[in-house]
Amino acid sequence: MNAFFVCLILYFAVSPTWGQLDEQTIQNFDWNKDSAFIDQLFERYDGLCPGASFLVIKDGTVVAKKAYGYADLKNRVKTTLHSNFRLASASKQFTAMAILQLVHQKKLRLDQAITSIFEDFPEYGANITVQHLLRHRSGLVDYMNLLDQNRSTQILDAEVLTMMKAQDSTLFKPGSKCLYSNSAYAILAMIIEKISGQSFAEYMKKELFEPLGMMQTSVYEQAQAIENRAFGYTKVGHAFRMTDQSTSSAVQGDGGIYTSVLDYQKWAEALFSNQLVPLTFFEQSLVPYNDPPDYRYQAYGSGWRCDYLNGLLCTHHSGHTKGFTNYTLRIPALKISVVVLSNRNNEDAVIYIGNMLAALFSESRLTVYDVAYIDAVYEKQGSEAALKLYKKLSANPSIQASEKTLLVLGQKLQKEQQFLKAVEVYLEQIKVFPHAHEAYYQLAACYTALGQQQQAKQMQQLALDKIPATYRKVLRP
Question: In the beta sheet, which residues pair with residue 64?
């Protein structure tokens, strides 16, 4: 197999439709007549390159779906709506649901300590409950930080449990705060095996996938073939290298599920019903803990991140792993679900596009932000065209400027070592968002790279001054 596969990247002039998404179109977005706009957002995934597929459900009906590019470059297999992608961390919603099933069946308790499940677990585990594991509040060190960098064999969930048993304490008092830990979900997979008497893969198949008719969905097992499999890639210059597996790719509970957008549709619809657990029980599991007011964090329910957009609960989860970036999102009040899957490493574009899709089909209940727009133009024509469109969109009342937009562009320019252009972008960002402390940090990094130490120190101090008060206790003594 060749290490690199060339992707035909065509740089067209920006289409006249760019920047023309007006208020009327947003309010009455129709996939049948407006799909060309979405195709532009996905253009980087089209052609002879690793692809993507997406699906949008509203009120139980699929209102948009499409696939782009290739699932397998070596064998020239195109991406379809049936292509199965590795979900990575978006798998956690499935692991969490399996735990909720066992709790609902009274085979397990949310307040149960893990020492009562694994009798040989060290004493510190007596303070860690199933609930803590579900919501990333256990304080367990992430196993990724314990792996030998020279390791060549894949780690499995059982070994993660063994690694946790070798620890003698947690990073903080369990329950006191939220810190994302893949170890927690590997241990949850082992709890499912211990309580059910089945392997994690068997349990998921019999209790989740088969009842929902998700016949193409599976848990990754090293010796088992995956039907309609999409393989993962990383972009290097204008080519793509296959990067399908890593040492952590065989861990199942934290990220080992493969599915397609069509199978995910069945899952998304089930989450609005009583098919797996009572709907009220599931919804209650999404209510986040309340942290102390001086600690800022992203709320995490059972297998889902939780935010409020325009007053509406949004549950979402991305999946990042070597060769894949995915995004799943639900707006319960609007009965909207979005899934975007890609077989590329570090392609946050799928998150920006997923949020825009949800907004476009929300009948103006959600805000349409510019980040997906600008990011796509950057990919086609570079920073100057992206900045020009950014300024043009600033005058469009139907599209909201996002503080994240220029941060994304600046970081891409930094990665390409175009530090002067990145400085221009960040200066534009702080002009529009003067309290964007992350932009000041990035400016400091750019000035350091340019050898301008005085400006770098000035930006570092400004960054500290702009940090929201809720961050300061964490970042300052």
Answer: 56
Separation between Cα atoms, residue 9 and residue 236, nearest integer Å:
13
The two tokens of residue 208 are: 């989740």
Tokens encoding 58:
């509203």
Question: For residue 460, what are its two tokens?
Answer: 């570092």
> Measured between alpha carbons, how far is residue 404 from residues 135, 142, 409 in Å?
26, 27, 9
Q: What does the pLDDT look like over 202-219, one tens digit per residue?
A: 999 999 999 999 999 999
What is the CATH classification number for the domain harbouring 117?
3.40.710.10
Residue 291 has pLDDT above 60, yes or no: no
Tokens of 474: 């964490």
Alpha-carbon gap, residue 368 to 402, rounded angstroms = 9
What is the domain range of residue 253? 29-370
Nearest in space to 154 (alpha carbons), one of 144, 140, 141:
144
Give pTM, 2 decimals: 0.90
35, part of any domain: yes
Whether 1 is covered by a domain: the verdict is no
**What is the rounded CA–CA span in Å between residue 289 and residue 130?**
14
Nearest to 326 by CA among 261, 267, 263, 265: 261
Give the span between the Cα atoms of 232 and 239, in whole angstroms.
Answer: 13
Q: Could you give the number of structural domains in the chain?
A: 1
- Closest to 182 measured CA to CA, from 271, 297, 299, 303: 303
Residue 14: its pLDDT value, please? 36
Report whether 184 contacts 142 (CB < 8 A): no
Find out whether 258 and 84 touch, Cβ atoms under 8 Å: yes
The residue written with tokens 């972009």 in the block is 235
Widest pairwise Cα distance in the chain: 65
The reply to whether 6 falls in a domain is no
Radius of gyration of the chain (CA): 23
Beta bridge partners of 53: 67, 341
Task: Yes or no: say if 161 and 187 are a contact pair by the CB < 8 Å rule.
Answer: yes
Tell me, yes or no, whether 266 lies in a domain: yes
